[in-house]
């Protein structure tokens, strides 16, 4: 562990696996609602990043997005299906990075399930717009940074630590393996 972790009086590192990892992913990423969606990450050159709204996260950690068939991201996924998602649930906690594989389809049942009227901004023909595609993202691994007891307790511990001259951080971090 790095030096800040050696100064901790309490445990602040915990790797999460399978169901526990999926629960943490869902908890933090649903708070964030949007992410940076990164493609071309295995190309050896600069990767591509854009903000994306998450339409749904399944209990197993699978993510669902809607995208236009003629978008750059869809073309990039076809060339390299491995992507990275970056989330920030609040200004001080709930950070997640996820790595996994994405698949693009035109699954009409899934489009119907994920459809919201506001999406007509991008898909002007509505739910039946022929350009709508579904991106399914299945995370394999990731990392999270969060608080153990919420922002108020974390802030109180920081204040107390600064007064006492001790590291009193309410943070928790670790690997996510699905």
Q: Describe it for me?
A:
Strands 1, 2, 3, 4, 5, 6, 7, 8 and 9 form a 9-stranded mixed beta sheet that branches. The protein has helices at about 5, 20-30, 70-80, 110-115, 150-165, and strands at about 15, 35-40, 50-55, 55, 65-70, 80-90, 95-105, 130-145, 170-175. The protein has about 180 residues and is α+β, with helices and mostly antiparallel strands. The radius of gyration is 19 Å and the shape is elongated. The longest helix is centred in the N-terminal third of the chain and has 15 residues, at about 20-30. About 25% of the residues lie in helices and about 35% in strands. It has a single domain, classed as Pnp Oxidase, Chain A (Roll), CATH 2.30.110. The chain contains 5 helices and 9 strands; from the N terminus they run H-E-H-E-E-E-E-H-E-E-H-E-H-E.
Percentage of residues in helical conformation: 25-40%
SS-based class:
alpha+beta
- Please give the CATH architecture: Roll
What is the count of structural domains?
1
- Largest sheet composition: 9 strands, mixed
What is CATH's topology name?
A: Pnp Oxidase, Chain A
Through-space gap between termini: 23 Å
Beta-strand percentage range: 35-45%
Poorly predicted spans: none
Summed over residues and divided by their number, the pLDDT gives a mean of 87
Number of helices, where a helix is a run of at least 4 consecutive DSSP H or I residues = 5
Q: Rg to the nearest angstrom? A: 19 Å
Approximate shape: elongated
Task: Please report the total strand number as a whole number.
Answer: 9
CATH class: Mainly Beta
């Amino acid at each position: 562990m790095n030096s800040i972790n050696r100064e901790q009086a309490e445990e602040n590192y915990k790797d999460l696996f399978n169901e526990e990892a999926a629960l943490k992913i869902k908890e933090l990423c649903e708070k964030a609602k949007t992410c940076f969606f990164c493609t071309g990450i295995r190309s050896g050159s600069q990767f591509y990043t854009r903000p994306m709204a998450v339409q749904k996260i399944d209990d197993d950690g699978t993510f669902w997005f809607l995208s236009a068939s003629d978008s750059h991201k869809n073309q990039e996924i076809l060339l390299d299906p491995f992507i990275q998602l970056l989330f920030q649930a609040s200004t001080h906690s709930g950070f997640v990075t996820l790595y996994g594989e994405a698949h693009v389809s035109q699954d009409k049942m899934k489009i119907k399930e994920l459809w919201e009227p506001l999406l007509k901004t991008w898909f002007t023909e509505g739910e039946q717009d022929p350009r709508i595609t579904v991106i399914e993202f299945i995370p394999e691994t990731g990392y999270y940074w969060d608080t153990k007891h919420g922002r108020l307790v974390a802030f109180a511990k920081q204040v107390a630590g600064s007064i006492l001259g001790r590291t009193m951080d309410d943070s928790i971090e670790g690997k996510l393996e699905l």
